[in-house]
Amino acid sequence: MNVEHRPNDQLGTLIEQILGSASSKDLKDMRDRAAYVFLTGTHPSHLRRTWTQILSRISRFSKTATAIDGRPAELQLDQRIVTKLDLENHPMVTRVREYVAKGYRITISLGPNERKPYTRIYLSRGTGDATDLVTVQTDGSVLDHWRRR
How far apart, in whole angstroms, are the C-alpha atoms of residue 124 and residue 85? Predict the structure, then answer.
């Protein structure tokens, strides 16, 4: 996988090293964070600077990008990264797709000043008292409510 970078580009070299490692913690971390961007079309909040820089490098702003639930999004991941990280088969991506097929919509955060954790995707369906709320976590497990930690 050749991530575009300039000579003496430490970030590009770091990305290459992470992608080249078959089963490192950094590769799993990159896959989880990239899955969030892949699903939502936006960056998660409260990441360390290096992870924010990595996500910025492997994604691009796009006027035509859409989130997995069909709403407009800001970011689109490089397709080579999607393939290399096998994001189509990421447990969170698979489970969110199941819920979106049932009519659920992604809610990016729980409020205007709330975090956007890469470890959770908040989904809702319906309105008022008939609203179903679920949280899909990175391992694909589902909480049948929205929970703040």
Answer: 27
Strand 132-137 relative to strand 142-143, pairing? antiparallel
Tokens 């908040």 belong to which residue? 122
The token duo for 46 is: 């409260």
CB 142 within 8 Å of CB 96: no
Tens digit of each residue's pLDDT (9 = 90 or more) over 47-94:
898 999 999 999 999 888 788 888 888 889 999 999 999 999 999 999
Cβ count within 10 A of residue 14: 18
Q: Is pTM, for the whole model, over 0.90?
A: no
Evaluate the CA torsion angle 124, 91, 48, 39 in order and state its sign: negative
Q: Is the dihedral of CA 7, 13, 15, 17 positive or negative?
A: positive
- From the list 88, 37, 27, the residue with the least C-alpha distance to 58 is 37
